[in-house]
Amino acid sequence: MNAALLILSSIFQPFSVSTPILCLQNTTATFDDLIACFYNYTVPQQYYSEDTYVAAQPSSDQLLAWEALVSSLLSVDGNCTSVVVPEAIADIYGVSLFTDSTSGLQYCIASELNALDGVYANGWGLVAVPATYDAVELTVHLAAPHPIFDGPTALQAAALFSATGARSLLISGRHREAYDTQSDCVIPTSATTVYYKTDPTHDVNEPFHSASTAILEWQRANGGCPSDSCAIIQLHGKAETSCPTDAMFMSSGIGSSTSSVAWYTDSTDRPIKRLKNALIQSFAPWNVSLPSDSSCSLTATDNVFGRLVNGIDASKVCTHAALANTTTGEFVHIEQAWQSTSPDAYEGWAEALVEAFGGAGEGK
Asked: Residue 259 is part of which domain span?
């Protein structure tokens, strides 16, 4: 190719257009409206090439700054506008005080500032907390690791967060297959299963995992996560053909071995047991199950955050599963049929969360 053609070729190559994300400028929005707006910027399936994935990943300094920002947000008590975004990510993230136009409730939100070609420029995730400690009603951290892929679980998590006064909300900014290259973290035993690099439940390099870890460390350093009042809950959605008899299948990151079944069925009060009972009250016709009473295989034993919560060292969560004798119960993983994630189920879900964890608000 001669020089002239090379220049013309470079001129007409596709290029990305950066635009500001304006969701927070809608002053008539409810909190749920706001999250729906941000949800539209989720990095979609098969979006990244190797180069664009690497470019979107945080550097080591940016990762530390991201974790520090998450921790700072959790410490907000009426001072949201004073939160300083670390310099390393100041051009990527902003922190904003948002007032729900209907309820009047206020939230402190860390969100990305810019989009590339209509999607998050980085896709690390969104974090929200009540703007004051007094507004916290439940010491429950809600997370949606798989937006789009798992159906509307991100919107569900947001609705339950705002309806219950939960401690925090974390939503991934990427489809789990945004970069469809196999992860070198958790290697599935099944030849038909693939975990991708942008799947934050199976790859520790995803910023969502780092944010989850920061939330866990903050909670443990600030009163701990007592079994009778606290949990870190991941909301997932399952295919209709997966465990079809279960409307909701819950686990704490251990499977159906003899010791695990004993953990689920012993007399110890655990978050997952209380939540199961509360969900049965809210959704009496539906089947709400645990590994001790269902053959469903979606037990989250490969979930890297679940492994971390359950006592596996951070350096080993890619390769070592949790054991029943180290499982804390703080982690609750919920697989849901489509009807459980629909807006029609939000009220029942909120009632169940309050029943299982109510009366232990941060500021109460």
From this structure: 16-357
Q: What's at 316, amino acid-wise?
A: K
Token readout for 2 is 């001669």
8 is a domain residue: no
User: In 3-state terms, what secondary structure has residue 58?
Assistant: coil
- Helical (H) or strand (E) element with 364: none
Phi, psi of 218 (to 5 degrees): -65, -45
Residue burial 222-234, b: 16+ Cβ < 10 Å; e: rest:
eeebebebbbbbb
Q: Give the pair of three-digit tokens for residue 52.
A: 């664009």
Widest distance between CA atoms in the chain: 78
DSSP 234-245: EEEE--TTSSTT
DSSP code, position 13: S
Q: Is the dihedral of CA 31, 40, 23, 94 positive or negative?
A: positive
**Single pTM value for the model:** 0.94
Q: What count of other Cβ atoms lies within 10 Å of the Cβ of residue 244?
A: 12
Per-residue pLDDT tens, the chain, 364 aa: give them. Answer: 454 444 444 444 456 789 999 999 999 999 999 999 999 999 999 999 999 999 999 999 999 999 999 999 999 999 999 999 999 999 999 999 999 999 999 999 999 999 999 999 999 999 999 999 999 999 999 999 999 999 999 999 999 999 999 999 999 999 999 999 999 999 998 888 999 999 999 999 999 999 999 999 999 999 999 999 999 999 999 999 999 999 999 999 999 999 999 999 999 999 999 999 999 999 999 999 999 999 999 999 999 999 999 999 999 999 999 999 999 999 999 999 999 999 999 999 999 999 999 954 444 3
Contact yes or no for 288/279 (Cβ under 8 A): yes
Token reading at 83 = 């939160």
Q: Count of domains in the chain?
A: 1
Q: What are the φ and ψ backbone dihedral angles of 292, each rounded to 5 degrees?
A: -80, -15
Q: What is the DSSP string of 132-158?
A: SGGG--EEEEEEESSTBTTBTHHHHHH
Closest by Cα among 139, 138, 151 to 335 = 151
The answer to whether position 9 is within a domain reads: no
Asked, for residue 292, whether it belongs to a domain, the answer is yes
